[in-house]
Specification:
Length: 324
DNA sequence: AAGCGTCAAGCATCC
DNA sequence: GGATGCTTGACGCTT
């Protein structure tokens, strides 16, 4: 059995690096209060530039800590997809910054992707929502291409809303998929959610449309037909067979029994190791996205816990094997 | 500096 | 069909 390389990543922002938010923003309300629209747009561009420069700082922080896996904030450019800013060329003012960011990631082999907000809903019944969803995905596509990153399998989405009838809404994802441009389609990965669409549902769609499946263990514990997931793991791996990228999954721990769906500050290392042991050897590499309130600090804490375990063999500060 | 109300998106739920 | 909650990080006003 080949060993699996596990790499850890975290989401969008750091609790260690001060004043490094990649998600500073101007709300539409504030934007519309500017007397001078040109000044307002200039303000948006200043914020966008700062967000991307902060991303670069985060990437340097990642490099210093051997972190090769990172989720970018989807809020890099405030109001980029807002209706009131149609025609605004939001790329030109930050073109060089995006290139610099992408070059740094490429040079230091940092896998980057996005998780667009939950109002990107591809199984919607409304034409308008479909339009803004594709528009938002196109914004992500633009960011990726200007970072000179191949936009393949870079955006994790959920299947969408239930709309009273889960089965027909699931099928609507499949019929709406035909309305999505091919270059947007190839960016997408699909993740099981904690309320409606289970791993089983996601696999059905992923296999049908050839989309990689991102398994979220925490969501699965909150929402499943059967608690057992390992019997489906082979299918999850299989959805990645045509991808240039390694298998990716999401790891988080429940905040409490009462607030089970909410994310805890840290990752429960025992739960994580139990998972790791089950999937070890199934594929050469699994990138584990740590989704915890304490962001990079949760990753560092988990690494400390792993180092204390004699079954774990660290490769660097954020990657490891299980000893055979 | 800290705390609280506000903002933004779409869906779910309730009336 | 309209109001409210969900969720999250950030803004901005008040103390």
């Amino acid at each position: 059995m080949t060993k699996t390389l596990f790499r850890l990543g975290y989401v969008a922002m750091s609790v260690n690096l001060k004043n490094s938010s990649p998600s500073q923003t101007i709300t539409y309300k504030r934007f519309s209060q500017f007397a001078d629209e040109e000044a307002a747009i200039q303000k948006l561009e200043t914020v966008a530039k700062s967000n991307i420069q902060n991303c670069l700082r985060l990437l340097k922080h990642n490099k210093a800590n051997d972190i090769h896996f990172f989720r970018l904030s989807s809020r890099l450019i405030p109001l980029a997809t807002h209706d009131a800013l149609k025609g605004w060329d939001y790329i030109s003012p930050i073109k060089e910054d995006l290139e610099e960011l992408g070059e740094f990631a490429a040079k230091h082999e940092i896998r980057m992707d996005f998780h667009p907000d939950h109002f990107v809903v591809l199984n919607t019944t409304k034409k308008e929502v479909m339009k803004t969803s594709v528009k938002t995905l196109d914004y992500h596509h633009k960011l990726l291409t200007h970072m000179k990153l191949k936009p393949i399998h870079r955006c994790v989405l959920h299947l969408g809303g239930k709309y009273e009838n889960k089965e027909s809404s699931l099928e609507r994802f499949i019929s709406n998929w035909a309305l999505v441009p091919a270059r947007i389609q190839e960016m997408i990965m699909l993740e099981n959610d904690d309320k409606t669409y289970t791993l089983h549902d996601i696999l059905y769609v992923c296999e049908k449309l050839n989309i990689p499946a991102v398994f979220d263990l925490h969501h699965h514990m909150a929402n499943h037909e059967r608690e057992d997931w390992i019997s489906e793991w082979g299918r999850v791996i299989q959805t990645w067979s045509a991808s240039p990228l390694p298998v990716k999954m999401h790891i988080s721990s429940p905040k409490s029994d009462k607030q089970f769906r909410a994310h805890a500050n840290m990752i429960d290392p025992e739960m994580f190791l139990t998972f790791v042991k089950k999937v070890n050897g199934s594929t050469p590499q699994i990138d584990c996205m740590i989704e915890a309130k304490q962001k990079d600090q949760a990753l560092f804490q988990l690494v400390d816990d792993l180092k204390a375990n004699s079954e774990v063999e660290m490769v660097d500060e954020a990657s490891f094997y299980l000893k055979s």
